[in-house]
Design brief:
345 residues, alpha/beta, Rossmann fold, Dehydroquinate synthase-like, alpha domain, 7-stranded mixed beta sheet, 3-stranded antiparallel beta sheet, globular
Length: 345
């Protein structure tokens, strides 16, 4: 199934229930370069035999300017030109790297994504935001450029480790919290095993539903000057926690959503039962509720967040499950919430 969405910066073809192997059989191999990570290259060697391929380590630390510089040199060595299309095959690290590299190599070349993780399929590959890290500051250098296509081949999920399923469901739970109360109820009635092992159709529908929510928000605000910030629910604290403690992204987002709900109760009138419901849902999808945080160190990183304005930061809170809003919060409110969360562990 295929459909297209036109954003201000370009049109994206969404290829659902597609075969990447079949796609490679039709692409212009002379003008194609695949970029993947070592893990995917070893799991699926046949996919990379006939097309020029560049490989990076499968770690968050690959998302830096040194990697971009090395890949640019590699592209020159394989004689990549303005006609070359880069295709990122992997999770969120790969899509960030490839999207950023494509935007700056020769001042811009075409690119597409083949996300291989659940998190990549429902979030990281969608929306055109691509960035790399500077030290412990996540995505502080980046671009907003749409890929030409995103191909969803769910057969890649057959080799996805259990932890990566949990990571992906953290982002799905985020969508439910900010924009889809019905999805929240559906998720609460099921679990990872249901979507992974029992009902492939339900999983595909869930992926398409998440893509539709994100596309709707991005269409309204591609440059993230307004409501696109809602996608950051749980992420402001999560990015600091993720980098301080090298937690997987989804686990950090789960903790970040708990903290955001604690703040929501104080500043947005969120019913306290919503926090309990969220905690039950996170547990159902094997995401941690408890983690010891150094509030001061976390705040030092938060103060470098892109959403900071002077001594405040745009923080995403819930008025109710399914409805998120943006609040400009002073740092002391956030720090108190971090201390409160830490003391409750």
């Amino acid at each position: 199934m295929q459909h297209s969405v036109t954003f201000p910066s370009g049109t994206v073809d969404y290829l659902f229930q597609a075969s990447f192997s079949d796609f490679l059989g039709t692409c212009d191999k002379k003008h194609t370069v695949l970029i993947t990570n070592e893990h995917i290259a070893k799991l699926y060697p046949a996919l990379f035999k006939e097309v020029r391929t560049l490989v990076v380590p499968p770690v968050e630390s690959s998302k830096d300017l040194q990697t971009i510089a090395r890949l640019a040199k590699d592209l020159l060595q394989v004689e990549a030109t303005k006609k070359t299309m880069l295709i990122g095959v992997g999770g969120g690290v790969i899509t960030d790297i490839v999207g950023f590299l494509a935007a700056v190599y020769m001042r811009g070349v075409s690119f597409g994504f083949v996300p291989t993780t659940l998190l990549g399929m429902v979030d990281a590959s969608i929306g055109g935001k691509n960035g790399v890290n500077i030290g412990m500051n996540k995505n502080i250098v980046g671009t907003i450029t749409q890929p030409k296509f995103i191909l969803f081949d769910t057969r890649f999920l057959d080799t996805l480790p259990d932890d990566e399923w949990s990571n992906g469901f953290a982002e799905i739970i985020k969508y439910a919290c900010i924009a889809d109360a019905e999805m929240f109820e559906e998720l609460s009635s099921n679990n990872i095993s249901y979507y992974r092992d029992q009902d492939d159709t339900a999983l595909i529908k869930l992926i398409e539903r998440c893509v539709a929510i994100k596309n709707r928000i991005v269409l309204e605000d591609e440059r993230e000057t307004g409501n696109r910030k809602l996608m950051n629910f749980g992420h402001t604290a999560a990015h600091a926690i993720e980098n301080l403690y090298e937690l997987p992204h989804g686990k950090a987002v789960g903790i970040g959503m708990v903290i955001a709900c604690m703040i929501s109760i104080q500043v947005a009138g969120l019913d306290k039962t919503a926090l309990d419901r969220l905690k039950k849902l996170l547990t159902l999808y094997h995401l941690p509720l408890r983690f010891n945080i150094d509030a001061k160190k976390a705040m030092d990183l938060l103060k470098m967040d892109k959403k900071r304005i002077d001594d405040t930061i745009d923080y995403i809170v819930l008025e109710k499950v399914g409805k998120a809003v943006i609040h400009s919060l002073p740092f002391d409110v956030i720090e108190k919430a971090l201390i409160q969360y830490d003391s409750s562990n």
